[in-house]
């Protein structure tokens, strides 16, 4: 277990829970099961490759993924949006978990049960364009659409200010959301934040045929496996292979290439100018030896955020 060096942010950064109760329906009076039924314990909308995954935490969380109807501007009907809703409601404000670039809610397979065991009301969400939503009609998946989709999901089902957690590019998603919808966010937790990239850069100018070729490479097992080796240090080969399958499971969704190219050519996230506009207290967690996002950028973010505090992992 990684040891944490805490800055001046209090240990109760995520907020304490005073009362916890089991609930049969979500806030807003809605109880939704995965549309399309359940196949062998997994929601039938998940790719069949989910059966090959061995990690028990990933399998358990995958069985809990649901699709909730979320209305967005560009669609006359709702988008069935994938997420893991909570089994409990608490007096404390909910914790909402985003994910990294081109990933899914399964990133939280290990942490999510711990949050629940602590009595927290936790939501693990799939950002529009990634994860396991039903995007067969291919809505725009630019930053504005992702932001508004997240707001509509919050407005329809969560309805209270949240502790918004964003790892890597998810930190940029969190900052963009917190600045544009401050009423929805009580605090931010940013993990190894990747917030200084100026969007997708020159990738936005690629001809579509080249963009599709690049996206096809992004899906390949060797590239995902390499990324997995960078993210996790010292794990057995068999586990690394299995976790690679977890990390690329959403790539098997039929719309994945189209929405990924759509995001790429749209320009992506560029939140540098928004950082100083963040009003919420923000906890930054970063790894001193992180091989993907340098800790120097995390420290830069700490000093630029008006209310930033930090914690570092020594592993």
Describe the overall structure.
31% of the residues lie in helices and 18% in strands. The chain is globular. The protein starts with a strand and ends with a strand. Helix 3 packs across helix 4. With 315 residues, it is an alpha/beta fold. A 9-stranded mixed β-sheet has the order 1-13-12-11-10-8-9-6-5, sandwiched between helices. Strands 2-7 form a two-stranded antiparallel sheet. A two-stranded antiparallel ribbon has the order 3-4. The relative contact order is 0.15. Helix 2 links the parallel strand 8 and strand 9. It has one domain: Rossmann fold, CATH 3.40.50. Pfam families: Hydrolase_4.
Short structural description:
The protein is of the alpha/beta class. The chain has 9 helices and 13 strands. It has helices at residues 56-63, 111-117, 143-158, 169-180, 208-219, 221-231, 237-247, 256-266, 295-304, and strands spanning 4-6, 20-22, 38-39, 42-43, 66-70, 79-84, 88-90, 95-97, 122-125, 162-167, 185-191, 281-287, 308-313.
